[in-house]
Amino acid sequence: MALCGTIFRTHYGDANTRGSLGSLIALFRRKNLTKDSLNFKAADELLRIVFEALLLVLVDFFESHIDTLDELVIPRVTDIIIDTIANLGSLMESHPSMILGRPCTAADINALLLLRDVAVYIELGDAIKTGDIGRIRSILPTITLMMHGGGNTNYARIQHELGVPQILRLHQHQSLQEIARMFERAVGAKYHNPAHVRSSSKGDIYKVKKAFQESGILTWEPSDDKRALPDLVVDLQHEGVDKMASGALDKFLTSKIDHHGAADLEETEAVALTEHAD
């Protein structure tokens, strides 16, 4: 739940922000979802709907530029997606973030960061659901960085136990590999098995997909959206790395760790999972 809340607050924006969760909440008229007060079940459902919608947006984006998304092309496409997300962040005209040669706007970057962040959330949920301790352990460093990047210091104990170098090595590719797998599944579902999506969610997924595309996000078509482009959201993973590199973690631990070596913090999901795994 803590990770869900961190992602939600980071990507919330407002009702007038292109591609933001706030604008989608306004679209669905969800009164039980605000930036400061979340209904977890409703937030979880919305994040999963948005994730599926963004995958379909990417399918359309690549279909418009590549003749056929077949088994030979899909690995190359997923490599492009992974490379693009891994190198996001620049809006400088001299060195902009690009996808298939198209410069990314701030709205594009925010959408791809949202896709990456929700992939981490879904991966954790699936790992917990199946009781896969190995998957949980492998993704904890990424979650730790995201929580620290979002200002949630309850995960500092995990950072301390894993160590900074290990986190920096492990966090890089976990969510990107998950996106690659899910993108391939989305392509396959579109052509072979569309029934994988619950019928109750299909309408909402396509509604969100249309909202992204009409806002000019990850599409080749010009947009009639008159709203200004948004500011870049916080890149939770990179922000977490920066905070750790700046010594913020050490300062926090120095002030919070008691004489037994345990952080004086309320118990969190990550701490509980680690202790259970041991």
Question: Key terms for this structure?
Answer:
278 residues; 2 strands; 13 helices; DUF6589; mainly alpha
Could you characterize what this model shows?
The protein has 278 residues and is mostly helical. The chain has one domain (2-277). It is 62% helix and 1% strand. The chain is built from 13 helices and 2 strands; from the N terminus they run ααααββααααααααα. A hairpin with a 2-residue loop joins strand 1 and strand 2 (102-103). Helix 3 crosses helix 10 and helix 7 (156-162) crosses helix 12. The chain is globular, with a radius of gyration of 19 Å.
Quick overview:
With 278 residues, the protein is mostly helical. Helix content is 62%, strand content 1%. The longest helix is centred in the middle third of the chain and has 25 residues, at 106-130.
Strand order of the largest sheet: 1-2
Number of strands: 2
Structural class: mainly alpha
Rounded mean pLDDT score? 75
Oligomer: single chain
Number of separate domains:
1
Cα gyration radius (Å): 19 Å
Strand content: under 5%
Low-confidence stretches: 257-278
Structure annotation, total helices: 13
